[in-house]
Specification:
- The chain is of the alpha/beta class.
- The protein has 2 domains: about 130 residues, Rossmann fold (3-Layer(aba) Sandwich); about 40 residues, no CATH class.
- The chain is about 35% helix and about 20% strand.
- It has 7 helices and 8 strands.
- The strands form 2 sheets. Strands 3-2-1-4-5-6 form a 6-stranded parallel sheet, with helices on both faces. Strands 7-8 form a two-stranded parallel ribbon.
- Helix 6 links the parallel strand 7 and strand 8.
- The longest helix has 14 residues.
- The chain is globular.
Amino acid sequence: MINGASGGVGSWAIQLAKALGAEVTAVRSGRNAEMVRALGADAVIDYTKEDFMSGGGRFDLVFDTVGNRALSDFRKVLCPTGTYVSCSGGKSTLRWLFRLAAVSLTSLFTRQRLKMLIVSPNRADLLSLKEIVEAGRAKPVIERRYALSEVSDALRHVGGGHARGQVVIRIADQPSSLTQSFGSRSC
């Protein structure tokens, strides 16, 4: 189950999970149902109409990109030896710290694996991701593009918690000393 499946992280999570052979349940709002289905979600839960806890589903893995529910809620839908991974504690640093503490402390007393995602990129993982993308099994979902001068608008949009896919900051069309020094090149 992916909580926040239509956001920037969740949209990648669906595709990577499918590429690795998982069955995916996506939790997101109703307006994003078709998007997550198109990305490969097998089941879709609209959190505005249904609580993922009420469906009776049990999951081997819960990936939480939102941090909007208590850890105990996620643990109730996990299999007894399932894994919960969070990459969000909510909208504030303090909430993230509380989530980190709750995950760390609770994991000492349960067979369920409870983890906070802390990224440490390495060559092997990046090459695996590159292969998945080059094979067409995952692609970015770009909702909006902003000019470099509009970064504050982009951050406000993402901070609102309802971005669909990635938000991109364009820097190529901005005059800069780097462009003047090195010239512009296409990748």
